[in-house]
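Notes, p. 3: input format for complexes.
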Amino acid sequence: MPPAPHQHCVLVIEDDHATRDSVTQALAGEDFRVLGSDDGADALAKLATIQPCLILLDLMMPRMDGWQFMEELRVHPGFSRIPVVVVSAYGTREGVRSVGAADYLRKPFEFPVLLDFVGRYCRLGCELEPGGSKKTH
Ligand SMILES: [Zn+2]
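Output follows (137 residues plus zinc ion):
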């Protein structure tokens, strides 16, 4: 039996369910596996068991916001290499890069632009995966 092909997995950290649902639908339509979290604390719990290729991160969230999440992410060596794209109406590209994010997409965004970001950074995350399992992309 041939090994299952790698399926890109994106973790969407976003407390606005309407936004999260539309992002999830757009990415699922492109064959991505999508996981959602309401805030940074829930996302960290999920990262203990799954390894996404890419994280899409909102900044303004209850409990643990995007800035706090980036701080937590950086102290976990296993997590810190997962590319993070901040998707928010707040912040700047320079600001989010200074806390370790790969890039910044300002809300409101166009879905083709989101898919372009995801395609680019998801592949980057896959190439960084340890163990060297055969990449299909
Ligand atoms: Zn992938």
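The pocket of zinc ion is lined by residues 6, 8, 53, 122, 126 (CB under 6 Å).
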